[in-house]
Amino acid sequence: FQYKDLLDEGPEYERYCHAVVAPGVAVVQGMPDDDDATGQPVSDAMFKWFGKMMQHPERDTNHWLISSMGYASGGNSQGYALDKVEKNPAYNTKLRLLNHTDQVSYGGPGFLLAFHCVAGQGVNSVCDGFKVADIMRKEYPEYFEALCKPTSFGRRISHYRQPIDQHVLEPIFTLDSYGKVMRVRFNEILRGPVALPFDEFETYFAALKKFVELVNSDELNIERTLQKGEM
Q: Are the beta carbons of 73 and 86 closer than 8 angstroms?
């Protein structure tokens, strides 16, 4: 999609809104420049098209800044110029970030995620978690059932001005009242102790290994390199 074609919120905007829900990914080209990484263009676009972005209680901005010149900026980020990004151990861009869903330790994770490439490029790997769930339900029903049981996710975030403890007991596959998968929640870095009886652990861990194998498999992944000006 072209940014300019979405501004009048006409047919292309409607098609864009559908695309971000199903199949779940859409690329917008021609975004306004953001050379100082203020986050304003992505914040303005999201507010216009979907509503207010989630505001983290310990961040001064409602966006997260990632740069290969350092690590992701932390709680005091005001939108640093890219050559002044403070180092923070939250994210090392020299290492591959394995497939995950964001905000797994939140009670209600955000519905949409926007990533605006303001300089250089960024490689993104995308996997359809609902397709993974469908495969497991059909081919590994015992494993699927295991991953519908709550486990723990959490972390202590100590690099903010006020440290935050986040812990939830939630399943990897959340079902609605009709038994349909309504949410996939997984992040290996934030996965806590398995909160299940000991005699269920062996099956659960086998299910977890199969899930991770599928989530990171070549046949279920698409890689897309975003260039400057793409979101």
A: yes
The mean pLDDT of 1-15, rounded to a whole number, is 96
Ramachandran area for residue 158 (φ above 0: left; ψ -120 to 50: alpha; else beta): alpha
Paired with 125 in beta bridges are: 223
CB distance 68 to 120 below 8 Å: yes
Model confidence band, residue 78 (pLDDT cutoffs 50, 70, 90): very low
- Identify the top-confidence range among 114-123, 162-171, 200-209: 200-209
CA nearest neighbour of 58 among 135, 150, 162? 162
Whole-structure pTM value: 0.85
The answer to whether residues 117 and 226 touch, using CB atoms and an 8 Å cutoff, is yes
Instruction: Give the Cα separation of 66 and 115 in Å (integer).
Output: 10
DSSP assignment of the chain: -BHHHHTT-SHHHHHHHHHHHTTS----BSPPP-TT---HHHHHHHHHHT-PPP--TT-SSSS----TTSS---TT-S---GGGPPP-TT--TTS---S--S-TTSSS--S-------SSEEEEEEE-HHHHHHHHHHH-HHHHHHTTS-EEEEEEE-SSSS-EEEEEEE-SEEE-TTS-EEEE---GGGB----S-GGGHHHHHHHHHHHHHHHT-GGGEEEEEEETT--
Rg value, the chain, Cα = 19
